[in-house]
Each structure stands twice: as C-alpha cells, then as structure tokens.
Amino acid sequence: MTKSLFLRRPSTAFLAGWFFALLVFGGWSIASPVSSAPDEPSHAVKAEATVRGMFTGAPTDQVGIESFSLPRDISDLGGAMACTAAQPTTSALCQPDLGMFPSSEFAATSGVGSYNPVYYALVGWPSLFLEGDEAIIGMRLASALINGVFIGVMFWAAAQMTRGSSLVAWIAVALTPMATYLGGMINPNGVEITGCAALASVAWLIVHDRAASRLASRASMLAASGIVAGNARSASPLFVALIVVAVLLTVPLERVRELIRRRQVWIAAGVSVLGLGFAAVWTALVAAPAGFIPSSDPARDGIAQAVVHTLGATENYGTEMIGVLGWFDTGLPQPVYFGWTAGIGFLVIGALAFARRRFLLASVVLMIALLLVPSLLQAPSAATYGYIWQGRYSLPVFVGMVIVAGLGWQHSRRPDERWSRPVTIVVAAAAVAQIVSFATAYRRFSVGVARPFRDVLTGDAWQAPGGLVFVTGLFVVGAVGLAITGISISQALERTPADDLWSDEPSGGLSARLEHAAPAHRQDSVESPVVRAAERPPS
After folding, report:
1. Is residue 131 part of a domain?
2. What local confidence, expressed as pLDDT, does residue 496 receive?
3. Which residue range(s) make up the domain with 436?
4. Residue 108 contacts residue 76 (beta carbons within 8 Å)
C-alpha cells in the first residue's frame, strides 16, 4: 500500500497545517476592528516600542501603567478607538480612522510595558513601515504567522505518530474559538496557547516514538515551542514545565533515562533551560517589580478567601475558555458552548474511564492543575491587585490536558481500534462551531448584537478591510482546510500498516538496530515489556 503524502513527507502536513491555520488566524486579524480585542491597545504599544528599542516604559502615576513616546498614528489606540469595548450593541462605525492622526510623537500608555519582550519583538516589526490601521493589522498577521507555525508543528507531529490517529480530534477540541481568536490578535496569550499545544504534541511524539533518525528535528521543534511559549507571559514557564512533566509521566523511568542520554535531547534541554531561564529572570527582575494593573473590582481579599472565590469562578472560567470575545462583550451561541462542553466531557470521561496507569496519572495531574492554577497564581496577590484572572489565561494548561488525556486514552486501547469515525465527527463539528463563532463576532462588530445577521448586508453596517465576502471566505477556507487535512492524516494513519509507518533508517547504536529488526512490535507503547526486552543487548 502506498503511504499518504502526509505520512511519507511530514513536512507537507506541516505546510498544510500552517497555511490553513494562517487563513483562520488571518481571518480573525482582518475581521476584528482595531482595539476590539482584549488588552490589545496595551499589547500593540508594547510591540511598537520593543522594535524601536524601548523594552520598558517610563512610570506613570497609575499602578502598572507605563508610557512610551511613539508615533500617534499607530499608538493612540484607547479613547475613541476603543468605543466598542463593553458596548455590545455599538458597531465599529463609532471608531475614527487611526490613519487620520498625525505621525508626531505621542505619549502612548501600556499596562504591559515591562512584560517579556520576546513575543513583542517577533510581531512588532510591521509598525516600522506601516501606518494607521494597516500597522495594527500587519502586527496581527505577524502574530497569526507564528501561531500558524505551531499548528503546522502539531500536524507534523500527528503525521509521524504510529498510535496518534486521534490527535487531530484533540487538537480540534483544544483550540477553542477563544484560542483561534487570540491567535489572530496582538496578544502573547495566543502564542502561549498554540506553543503549549505544539509542545505537548511533540513531547509525546519524542517519548513514545523510537525513530532515532528523526530525533534531532523533533528535539529542535520541542525546544522552539517551549522557548517561545515560555517567554510569552510571566506564568508561561510554569505551564511549559507542567506539560513536559505530565508527558514524561506517561513512560517508565528507564525511557526517560534513555532519552536523557541522547545528545540531541540534552542539547535541546540545555537550550530550553537557557530560554526559560531568561523568562524567569525577566519576570523576577523587571516584570514583577513593575506591578500589574489592579482589578476594577474593589474586593481585596486574603489568600484563603481568594482561593474559595477563585474556585467558585471555575464555571465562568470554563465559559471564557470556550469563548467570550472582544472586551468580554461578545458571547457565542449557546449550541457552541453546549457542543464544546460535550466534547470536553467526552474526552474527560473517556480518559478517566479507559486510560491506564501512567496515562491516567498524567491526565489527572493536568486536570488538577487546570482547576488549581488560577487559585495558586491569583490568591497570593488578590489583596493587592484584586481578582484579575480570566479564563483565557488557563488555556495553555487546558490544551496540554486535552492532548495528553486524549492520546493517553488511545494508547490505553487496543492498537487495532479504529478512531476515524469519532475523529471525523469531532473535527467536523469543531470546524462548524468555529465558523459560527466567527460569524457571530463579525455581526457584533458590524451592526451590534441587537440587530439580526441580515443587517450585516445593509449600507449602514461596518465592514472589515476587503469586505464581508473576502474575510469570511478566508476564514471558511482555512477552517475547512484544517478539518480536511486533519481527517486525511488520521485516516491515512489507520489505513497504513504499522510496519510501513517505521520505514526510516535507524540510527543511534545497538538499541536502534534492534528496534529496526523487529518493527512488528513498534505498535506497542514504550512501556511494553516486549519492547523493553528488545532493547536489551544479547548476553
């Protein structure tokens, strides 16, 4: 049987995933009015300042707010530009044209002025040669490009998994409408989410797949995903560590030791430690002393009360993780919430009921982390800053949990069990829900939530650059393309005999040669005694 092109050349899966994801994220980038995304004015100012060599701003009389001197036509993003914020019935027609502002220096303020500069350096460069709305959209597209890379990495990993035909379904569940929306905005939360999802996928591939000849490229992908995601926000290194530890829990200790002895792995680990070390040092020495913007909620509770309050808000956080767009002013249709909740419930019940031993342990660790991380990070500072946690901040842990629990479930079942039907249903349903969410958000900014969808076609409706047909077509092609690509990879994995999935030449000494000599056993988990016996050299 001839293998699928995606399986023969995983780079094609990467390119397809990247391209279609770029259309999805780019659709959000273009279809969302300037200053309509959460905290985007602050993030845009920080990005513009970073690429101009200003890594921190001048302090102001407001806690957590810093000032930068920037051209006004790209940085005056508050005030009238944010007229839709928390006003769901107001369309984007209320906004002035950003390009009409003069290019003279302006004291632009940001609530993230001392944040880690890595993400902002990667996305701020379009502001060096674009003006007005084009500069903001250009930076959004730069962010979409990076997020698209991480989606491509996930598809690349999926095409190489011998028992990973379900991965694309878990990717579809993990990337909620909120996650894809953030992927098209100027916000480090987006790359934190997609980077952690890619990290979980590649880490699983490395520890459960013994193809030594591909270890260097996989280790490189792992390090890149971890470093970019880990430098996104102050809590990001914690999320990266949680996901890596959870994946390592799914294999025996001897497998971990074997990997550590590999040169490619310890080089990637060393680079990752340096990258994450930079993030930790920046947070400790720069970001934390600068402070954060206090909550507008006057409540300032002690640790114990803050823990109880935060745990009580878990349901709200769950809704926000699925999607409350804009400045918490754009909810999604109830069927989207119900459907996504059902998909998450299907995964959690399946993992808890069927995942065995180490897979169950790793899944439970991340499930508990998802529940407790908001309390652990928010409660100690609640007396000073109030309640500032939002559901989207939990998405990096959520995507890791979904991928690890889902793959653990599949690995705990029979190797010949077919997953193509549930994968197709989940992926197709997620694509439809993404399109419905996009249409809902577009209607909100075009005419406001009080008017029907048909009014988007009227003359007094706001339209995105390029028009309704262009941006909608962009998004729909991307969503459908991702779904078809993912389903194709899953079905190709199930059609291809296990032996044919291991056609690359081994490298790495006696262990790899022995593995190559017995490909029939490679469908087993790395914890299989058959595989462990094959690893021992003859006496």
Report:
1. no
2. 80
3. 5-32+148-496
4. yes
Place of tokens 């979409």: 144
**Which conformational region is residue 64 in: left (phi greater than 0), alpha (psi within -120 to 50 degrees), or beta?**
left
Residues 6+ apart with CB under 8 A from 495: 1, 4
What type of residue sits at position 438? F
Structure tokens at 450: 């009080």
Average pLDDT over the chain, rounded to whole? 91
Question: Which tokens is 106 given?
Answer: 């302006």
- The C-alpha torsion from 336 through 337 and 339 to 341, rounded to 10°, is 160
What tens digit of pLDDT does each residue of 131-182 get? 999 999 999 999 999 999 999 999 999 999 988 999 999 999 999 999 999 9
Q: Tell me whether residue 44 is in a domain.
A: no
Taking 90 as the threshold, does the pLDDT of residue 520 lie above it? no
Residue-wise pLDDT for 50-70, tens only, equals 999 999 999 999 889 999 999
CA distances from 124 to 139, 142, 316, 356, 483 (A): 6, 8, 32, 46, 31
| pLDDT for residue 353 is more than 90 | yes
User: Quick check: 506 pLDDT over 70?
Assistant: no
Q: What is the pTM of this model?
A: 0.92
Residue 271 lies in a domain: yes
Give CA–CA dist 104/286, Å, rounded.
29
The first and second tokens of residue 146, run together, are 């990076």
Cβ 204 vs Cβ 407: under 8 Å: yes
Q: What are phi and psi of 114, to 5 degrees?
A: -105, 15
Comparing CA positions, the residue from 526, 535, 460 lying closest to residue 162 is 526
The beta strands (E) that lie in 273-363 are given as 324-325, 330-331
Residues contacting residue 166 through CB under 8 Å, at least 6 positions apart: 406, 407, 409, 410, 419, 422, 423, 490
Helix (H) or strand (E) holding 69: strand 66-71
Distance (Å, whole) CA 243 – CA 265: 17
Per residue in 463-475, pLDDT tens?
999 999 999 999 9
Mean per-residue pLDDT, 427-442 = 98
In a domain, 132, yes or no: no
Q: Which amino acid is at 199?
A: L
The contacts of residue 229 (CB under 8 Å, 6+ apart) are 191, 192, 194, 195, 196, 198, 199, 236, 239, 240, 396
Q: How many domains does the chain have?
A: 1
